[in-house]
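Q: Got a minute? One more chain.
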Amino acid sequence: MNEYVSGVLDNLKKKYYWEKEFLQAAEEVLESLTPVVEREPKYRVSAILERIVEPERVVSFKVPWIDDKGNYIVNSAFRVEFNSALGPYKGGMRFHPSVNQGILKFLGFEQIFKNSLTGLPMGGGKGGSDFDPKGKSDGEVMRFCQSLMTELYRHIGPDTDVPAGDIGVGGREIGYMFGQYKRIVNRFEGVLTGKGIHWGGSLIRPEATGYGAVYFTEEMLGTLDTDFEGKRVMISGSGNVAQYAAQKINELGGIVVSMSDSAGCIIDEEGISGDKWEFLMDLKNNRRGRIKEYAEEFGVPYYDAKRPWGLAKAEVALPCATQNEISGDEAQAMVKNGLIAVAEGANMPSTPEAVEVFLGNKIPFGPGKAVNAGGVATSGLEMSQNSMRLSWTREEVDTRLHTIMVNIHKSCAEAAEEYGTKGNYLNGANIAAFKKVADSMMDQGLVF
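A: Always. Here it is, folded:
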């Protein structure tokens, strides 16, 4: 890290010392950009790094609502509109008790680069609330979403900011938020993505992040002259991303041996496929049960309060749960168990220590901003369909998604090689994404 880059990072740490996840994400990106700013001094002259690490706007507001018992409750909500150099702000809304401004800044910052890699005209943003939809009735979720949108509608729009879903925000929540937006502005427009397929949603959107992660991993494996056939794959999480990553891996001949939730994890040596995968889908999407019930149903090991890393042998790892879920020690165990590739289905699930282990052992490591870009890419395709008042077939959307993920892999690989770190997808993703955003910022002058 040269003097300029380290100076920007040091200043950021002084200003936002309590925002640990954001600082972690910023350090990872800035460290990768050292060779870029050394080769191209125009970025320093234009203070691009100083400008790109600060959100263009942060909206913070309260969300009052009434539960089924008539109690008055107040939650906090935020929308971090980080960078609009490439297009309208684009990024999900997260409903989870852990949500705070620092978490959303980390996610919004990552979103800038993720969206850039897709090649679609989308800026970066993120939002959410500390509201927890788990255990809430449909009526409670509806009243919360309507209250939230009564303020949020002022700050979003199809050409300004287009939120989507994230943790805790699925089709139900998107529907309630869209309905309230439409009621207030008296317009039916593509302001949210992840909509119901009958009223503007895109086919493949629920599957997109998981499918896209597998498509990117397939390209990584290709550089090793292999593929998913017969490979044992560890997946964490059991939500949307993990479910459809598992489905696609099964289609490609892989064997998914693990899944998890916030309570613990399972190891199924025979593979989570066929009727077992169908059981998991019903368990998580309809009954909203715990992963432990899968272990009880099929008689496989369940590990309470543990993550799957290192508990079984596997060649491929797809962490699809949450940030910082793989420690350095767990990464070492995975390498000893025969790991040949890691692809992040979640946002920043590998700690810096884990990333160091993977790169130090020459394990191809796909960072989340590249690997899980399929979700936002398909959101972008949904925006296009809304603008044109069209609905593409499942095959059309899947083909476009596959092409985007292949191109993202190519961009990362080429940028890494161009700047002297061949095979380092982390550097390649950061560099390729940064250059597109930075050059656009320079073209538009000293503005947002």
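A: The two ends are 27 Å apart (CA to CA).
Q: Perfect, thanks.
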